[in-house]
């Protein structure tokens, strides 16, 4: 059975998708400083998942172009939304294969980078990604409101099977 935190990540992802439904490329590429563009946010979340679940966990990199374009600490960009969604789908699809295998023992372990354990456990990294999704989903919704978009989701979506609480 998939770990409940993985289900929560998938729910957070689905809420990002729901929040950005109907988004035009033009609006997604607008940058209301100091915030990044919405298209950057999509790519940035893909970059983080690629970094954790593919590069660190498995030594793979299915989206090497993301680091320079939307990586942490890099200059702001306004990439095409369809390219960022495509990268996001590629990364999350590849990541899901790995995420489905996570056990408590793996969540309690540490990835290595350059021969040393990184500072946060795999479980903490998973929580970090979940919270990162919620942060950028809220930020994107604020940008959409500032752009005058209407009929936006008003609250967290349906707590269907993947999102509801289960003890294990």
Give an overview in words.
It is a single chain. This protein is mostly helical and 168 residues long. The longest helix is centred in the C-terminal third of the chain and has 25 residues. Strands 1-2 form a two-stranded antiparallel ribbon. α1 runs parallel beside α7. The chain has one domain: dinb family like domain (Four Helix Bundle (Hemerythrin (Met), subunit A)), CATH 1.20.120. It is globular and about 45 Å long.
In short:
This protein is an all-alpha fold and 168 residues long. The protein contains seven helices and two strands, in the order ααααααββα.
CATH topology: Four Helix Bundle (Hemerythrin (Met), subunit A)
Largest sheet: 2 strands, antiparallel
Number of helices: 7
Helical content band: 55-70%
Strand content: under 5%
Globally, the shape reads: globular
**Gyration radius, rounded:** 16 Å
How do the strands line up in the largest sheet? Answer: 1-2
Structural class: mainly alpha
Would you spell out the secondary-structure blueprint of this structure?
Elements: H1 4-19, H2 25-28, H3 38-58, H4 66-70, H5 81-99, H6 104-107, E1 112-113, E2 116-117, H7 122-146
Antiparallel strand pairs: 1-2
Helix pairs in contact: 1-7, 3-5, 3-7
